[in-house]
């Protein structure tokens, strides 16, 4: 059952992560637009006053802020969806497992104590699953921050990685070539 549910959860999280990255990027651009509008208004305040452009600048600022708010709201939807959908899939998996375990218990292949301990162990898995799904949204937001990207760049991390199996294969092959001498000395073989 876990082998069926885990790929579904991974696929769902991947799709929402892609949307989170897109929205975070768009939100950064919208924030840049807000800063640009503010900078122009503050630096050119005399021109705005002389030509009576206060209303125009106020509307321009409202449009920029509205755009930023829209992107931030669109970013909250996937963040809010990840946990409930993951919990639903986990609950569906648990229902199937409980059904199978009850059938085993009715057939006298397991005892009530074994069933109770198994069920308790399954319930204990919910908290880590919840934390893992919540970490994803914060991670996506954090990775879009310029200061984080600068830190990764200083450490030699690639910021333009492809998020595909082929991209990962190319990355691993590049790393293999990068550390080829060490790999030969250590007798390490790729699988």
Architecture blueprint of SSEs:
Layout: H1 2-43, H2 45-50, H3 54-106, H4 112-123, H5 126-144, H6 146-154, H7 165-178, H8 180-186
Helix pairs in contact: 1-3, 1-5, 3-4, 3-5
Tell me about this structure:
With 191 residues, the chain is mainly α. It is 85% helix and 0% strand. It has eight helices and no strands. It is flat, with a radius of gyration of 26 Å.
Order of helices and strands: HHHHHHHH
Beta-strand portion reads under 5%
The biggest beta sheet reads: none
Regions with pLDDT < 50 over 5+ consecutive residues?
Answer: none
Counted by DSSP, the helix tally is 8
Average pLDDT, to the nearest integer? 77
Shape: flat
Q: Using only CA atoms, what is the Rg?
A: 26 Å
Helix content: over 70%
| SSE-based structural type | mainly alpha
Instruction: Report the oligomer.
Output: single chain
Strand element count: 0
CA-CA gap between termini: 27 Å
Structural descriptors:
191 residues, mainly alpha, 0% strand
Please summarize what this structure is.
The chain has 191 residues and is mainly α. It contains eight helices and no strands.
